[in-house]
Design brief:
eleven-stranded antiparallel β-sheet, 3 helices, globular, disordered C terminus
Length: about 325
């Protein structure tokens, strides 16, 4: 009898230990979805609209489908005056003999100049919604590139063509205020053309674009005045046996160097443009490209040779595409 009472007490004690503590919160079960009904999808967060802060502007190219924008880009070469020391006054002996003291110094050879060129820039929105740039020279095949809405070259173009398009089209990534500066994705000098054994002695680079003014215009328009100051310099020594990659076959410049040779490249860009904020395109853009090279270094410069005055002019209408010549008629086979 005592054993039965003891077992009963132990069983009651174990049952008490398994009881849930008082005050425990139970999760509330959601009611079942009715038959045939679908659960509502989770709401997606709305895309944040970029709103410039007070006093700032967001510069973007505004292109609509079926409404291309066309510009004419013109290059005008200038003969740059060579830098020289002030001329010393002629001596008495020179005056008596009628000699010109300036003739003692050999005149430097002028830098090669680029033939005046005109290009047509056509920007349009394709049916897929992408921005497309088509560059058509006065003679030759056109070149194309895809762009972002701020004019950044996404794909296409090389060398001087790409650098020129970047200078003309690329706008700042973020909204800017008067006095703000930014840089462009240019590469005005390419040292890789000199090869792995190139000994670099000096090099400098500056790349600054600045919003200098923001002025009101007619019909609620704003004019953003932008100034450009870019430059790259590089100098060094190429080893014996170097051959410029852009040399003409059979020419003296196409021959390999017999010994080490000094090379130098200096490219500078200064420009000023007026961008219409509301309309989303340039009103005016003018600048100067200056390229000076020493030795077999022309291929390293990624802008036209010499000093060029560059001007971008808006066209009222897009030029008509050049007509494709009809295929030649098949000639009958000779008997």
């Amino acid at each position: 009898m005592k054993r039965s009472l003891s077992g009963l007490v132990v069983a009651l004690a174990l049952t008490a230990c398994k009881e849930e503590p008082r005050g425990k919160m139970e999760p509330i079960a959601h009611p079942p979805t009715p038959a045939g009904a679908t659960a509502a999808p989770a709401a997606k967060p709305a895309a944040a609209e970029v709103v410039p802060a007070e006093g700032a502007v967001l510069l973007r190219w505004k292109l609509a489908k079926g409404e291309p924008r066309a510009f004419r880009l013109s290059f005008t070469p200038e003969a740059a005056a060579p830098a020289s020391e002030p001329a010393a006054p002629p001596s008495r002996a020179d005056k008596k003999k009628g000699r010109d003291p300036k003739a003692k110094a050999e005149a430097p050879e002028p830098a090669p100049l680029m033939t005046p060129t005109e290009l047509t820039y056509l920007l349009e929105r394709t049916s897929s919604g992408d921005a497309l740039l088509r560059i058509t020279p006065a003679s030759g095949a056109p070149d194309e590139a895809s762009l972002s809405d701020r004019g950044f070259v996404l794909e296409g173009l090389q060398g001087a063509t790409r650098n020129t398009a970047t200078l003309l089209l690329e706008l700042p990534r973020d909204a800017v205020r008067v006095g703000d500066t930014w840089s462009l994705a240019t590469e005005l000098v390419v040292p890789d053309v000199f090869g792995r054994d190139f000994h670099r002695s000096a090099g400098e680079r500056h790349n600054r674009v600045k919003l200098t003014a923001l002025t009101p215009a007619e019909n609620g328009e704003q004019v953003a005045v932008i100034e450009y100051d870019l430059g790259e310099q590089l100098s060094g020594i190429v080893p014996p046996g170097y051959k410029p990659p852009d040399a003409r076959p059979g020419s003296d410049e196409g021959k390999k160097t017999a010994g080490s040779q000094d090379v130098a490249v200096d490219v500078k860009v200064t420009a000023r443009g007026e961008f219409l904020v509301k309309a989303g395109h340039w009103r005016t853009w003018e600048g100067t490209f200056a390229t000076v090279t020493k030795g077999p270094a022309r291929a390293a410069a990624q802008l036209p040779a010499g000093t060029q005055k560059v001007r971008l002019t808006a066209l009222d209408a897009a030029p008509a595409a050049p007509a494709t010549p009809p295929p030649a008629a098949a000639q009958p086979a000779a008997p």
